[in-house]
Amino acid sequence: MQILQFTDKGIYCPAGNFFIDPWQPVERAVITHAHSDHARYGSKHYLCHKDSVPLLLLRLGQDISIQGVEFGETIRYNGVSISLHPAGHVIGSAQVRVQQDNEVWVVSGDYKTENDGLSGQFEPVPCNTFITECTFGLPIYNWQPQNIIFNNIRQWIYNNQQAGKNSVLLGYSLGKAQRLLYHLRDTTEQIWAHGAIYITNQLLRQQGWPLPDLQRITPDTPASAYKNNLVIGPPSAADTTWMRRFNTYSLGVCSGWMQVRGHMRRRNADAGFVLSDHADWNGLLQAVKATGAEQVYTTHGFSSAFARYLTENGIPAQEVKTAYGDMDEEPAETTSPHNNEEGL
């Protein structure tokens, strides 16, 4: 049974008359998480996990109609059952389970299988058909345990302090920034942040998330304030006037793309840390097999290669083209008039 269809507006359930992560405005949108390539402005009503509600209100505007639910809670639209399950990608991220009669489809959204301490543990959901991302769907992408990566970042910060340099790390304002702040909160006396990261951090702190208090960087912040402290900004700040305020600094980029030699050089970075909020090759394979799916659709990233590998190994799979981003985490914030990723 074809419960879900791939349309020019997104993944559509005809029987339930709803879309999952639509990339055009629709009547009813079920949202996996608050990144801008999955949650777009203009739909009449949004359904998401309760932890994504404040993030969507921040990014899409306070005037949207939105409903938040718990993991495992069942919602029914025209006889079709919907429930959300942990994806482990970023705070509030969810997979969408859709059931009609005895047929079950699961849309993964974006996910990672290592628990980062904030986003929850990815939960494989048994299904007949699994729609999976495969941003890093090649065997070369294999992540080290995050405790090793953060130990490397701490050593880098220490070395910079000894050399009298500021440590500037770039990571997306939703997801990567929270992981950095949570795991590096005791590395320096103060942590300074770009406005986009500061605003998201303050919102999540208000919701009770265990994140450190930040100092917001403004045009009036003296250069001496950053000395020996950690600075966190979004990737969009690279090669902008925002970076010029830090005098002598070392720039570190946190991204799964740092696995491939040459990406760090292209980003003009002094250090590259292979830290991703997406599953690596082994994580993708483990997730697919754990669902027991008889059919798999692959989206964004190395979708063609991953589908071919699955098919050659006994799991029927095919690639589906979508409007979701192919970047490591989150594309530039351009989908809502309420976003201000560049702002101080």
Automatic annotation (TrEMBL):
GO molecular-function term, one example from the UniProt record: RNA endonuclease activity
Record key words, sorted: Exonuclease, Hydrolase, Ligase, Nuclease
Signal peptide boundaries: none
Keyword Endoplasmic reticulum listed: no
Record Gene3D superfamilies: 3.40.50.10890, Ribonuclease Z/Hydroxyacylglutathione hydrolase-like (3.60.15.10)
Known EC number: 3.1.-.-
The keyword RNA-binding is assigned to this record: no
PANTHER family according to UniProt: BLL1145 PROTEIN, CLEAVAGE AND POLYADENYLATION SPECIFICITY FACTOR FAMILY MEMBER
Record-given protein name: Ligase-associated DNA damage response exonuclease
Species of provenance: Chitinophaga tropicalis
Organism ancestry: Bacteria, Pseudomonadati, Bacteroidota, Chitinophagia, Chitinophagales
